[in-house]
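Sync notes, pocket subgroup
Present: LS, DG
LS reminded everyone that the earlier model was apo-only. Rerun requested with flavin-adenine dinucleotide included. Inputs:
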Amino acid sequence: MFSPCASIYLLDQHVRFLPLVEMHALSIPKGQLSCKDKKFNLHCIERQSPNSKHKASSMDDFLIIGAGIFGLTTAIELQKRGYQVSLLAGGPIPHPKAASTDISKIVRMEYGSDAFYMDMADRCIDEWHAWNDLFQEELYREVGFLLACSKPMEAETQPYEHSSFHLLQARGHQPEHLVGDLISKRFPAFASRRYVDGFYHKRAGYALAGRTIEVLAKYAQSLGVEVKEAIRVKELLIENSQAKGVTSEKGEKHLAGHTIVCAGAHTAFLVPDLQPFMQVTGHPVFHLRPRNSSLFESPKLPVFAADISHSGWYGFPYHPHEHVVKIANHGVGQVLHPDRDPREVREADVQHLRTFLQTAFPKLHDAPIVYTRRCLYMDTLDGHFWIDRHPRIGNLMIGTGGSGHGFKMGPELGKLIAAAALGEKREGAERFRWRELGGQVKGEEEARFRE
Ligand SMILES: Cc1cc2nc3c(=O)[nH]c(=O)nc-3n(C[C@H](O)[C@H](O)[C@H](O)COP(=O)(O)OP(=O)(O)OC[C@H]3O[C@@H](n4cnc5c(N)ncnc54)[C@H](O)[C@@H]3O)c2cc1C
């Protein structure tokens, strides 16, 4: 049964949320409701009533800048908690240049010896399944993850794969160890004996990233978030070291009790105090059309990482909607300005890809490249997310620093950012606090290739 202050929503097959009623003491069993000839799934969203002090003025409680995975999940979490939230999206949703806008993003637990991220990703995988149920759409596809190694998977030679394998086992998971030509036997797209060791873990896959952003934006609106597309923020409105809102490029003022900046690669330009601690890096993404797609379709090919911490290369099975195989490089990248510098994939990048394919995927090495993209990381110097209040400006919160691995953590990001904005202590948030990173700091995300 529903608690008295629940909001009742109908979810029709078009993923539209139709606020039914908001009334007390309603007794309808959860599940299906039929109306005329249509069947609807009934979902209840518990709303917490914020204590009264937040509802004083007509000003929004929270103004969020950015409609990527950081901004949207935060808006949803705060609105669900009963705060009034507005979100400015800087362009269409999904924004074609946003990092969250993509045909696919890896969802993996494999973070080497880093148990914190492994556990966080493990929780997120449960929540990705819950999102699939809630939205009645397979936004997350659990096709499994293959970590292929060209050398024996020992600590010295392949530390990322070795530690991931043993930590998964220590956590009760069953990664399948694949040695010798078992990899190419099981996944025939791979060149025989190119990779001689590794493992396959079924609890992993990819998210339909751009589609997830579309669905989350609609969901946020159905909860009451005021989503405003195509409003580009020029600067923050700071008075007496207090954030009051923002001014848009058109000169309009948007005021709120609290401002949360989740502007991806633009965050450190809206909050310049962040610039010493993070940089924008561009990474090439390739979409190829194989002549024989069946070899590259799941389950014949799962999401894969090929010596990723030594080469950066990773990829996805043949995409069911886009009909391409996406391959990208989780490497150093090219430092860029998000607006001033061209985001092109250069001939040298293409040659680098062809060389990789030649030895790894002979059947793909001369396949046509349908399109490429240089996508931007908001790269913190240590590779960890940045989720905290500004130490010197009141009512200003930052949610950014995806560093090339944030999308999978979507289900937890909004909760972490909302908790930090509300001054709540949350397990693990310490890692993402405002931190004065010095020049010597190195990236700590173990899958990342660093020359
Ligand atoms: C090539 C590539 C591959 C990746 N692969 C993976 C992967 O496999 N798995 C994974 O987990 N993660 C992956 N990531 C990382 C992941 O995509 C990011 O961490 C995440 O999407 C960042 O989300 P965001 O909300 O911070 O930024 P974005 O998604 O970039 O959103 C930023 C938002 O801010 C808005 N904005 C910007 N400036 C302004 C302004 N001035 N005014 C108003 N709005 C503004 C934009 O319009 C956009 O809506 C990858 C990233 C890249 C680039």
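DG: Residues 128-208+279-380 form a domain with the D-Amino Acid Oxidase; Chain A, domain 2 fold (CATH 3.30.9.10).
LS: Confidence is low (pLDDT under 50) at residues 1-57.
Action: DG to write up.
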